[in-house]
Amino acid sequence: MALELIAAIVAAIAMAGIAMGLRKISGQRLPSWIVPVFAGAGLLAFAVWSEYDWFNRVSTGLPEGVVVAWKADEPTPLRPWTFAFPFTTRFAAVDTRAIVAHPQAADLVMAKVYSFARWQPVRDGLIVFDCAGQRQVPVVEGMEITAEGDLQGADWITVPADDGYQSIVCGKS
To answer: Which of 29, 35, 60, 166 could tie 19 with a disulfide, CB 3.0–4.6 Å?
Structure first.
């Protein structure tokens, strides 16, 4: 966050410098108010670019084997332009390097899932997937999976056939 603030200030200073250069080239014929206008435009342009490019920057920086399973392009009332041009504010990724199948029930698979959100720390957790039953459940305290593959202490969530998590995990297991 501090680096983005510094980058925004640098963008504002750079645009102000361009405006001062244009004033000098024009022999001071351009009004002096263009300097703060250019600085503000640079700051605003950087802020918009930073918001719209956040998902691309973070998702391309993921290690090999960590695959994006879901993303949310959410419009917000505080940013009315996002109703016309939404941007990704959060997404989740599955670590395909750490997918583990149950030794007695091959259709029962566990995977690590990471949750990313703008301006928030990354969260991670484990999810158990039933590939045959098209269902899943997050691993929580008190939950237990028996040697036969029966779940105790939590309820399965049935997911649609096009669920991103399910297709990634069950396709790689």
So the answer is: 35
Q: Tokens standing for 111?
A: 């995977």
Where exactly are the structural domains of the chain? 2-60, 66-172
- Look up residue 75 and give its two tokens: 């419009």
- How much is the pTM? 0.81
* Burial of 12 from C-beta contacts in 10 A (0-12 / 13-18 / 19+): buried
Question: Could you write out the DSSP letters of every residue in 95-124?
Answer: EEEEEEE-SS-TTEEEEEEEEEETTS--EE
**Tens of pLDDT, residues 62-114:** 999 999 999 999 888 988 888 999 999 999 999 999 899 888 888 889 999 99
Q: Nearest 5°: phi and psi at 111? A: -140, 155
Name the DSSP class of 83: G
What CA–CA distances, in Å, run from 138 to 79, 125, 141, 150, 157? 33, 7, 10, 14, 9
149 dihedral zone (left: phi>0; alpha: psi -120 to 50; beta): left
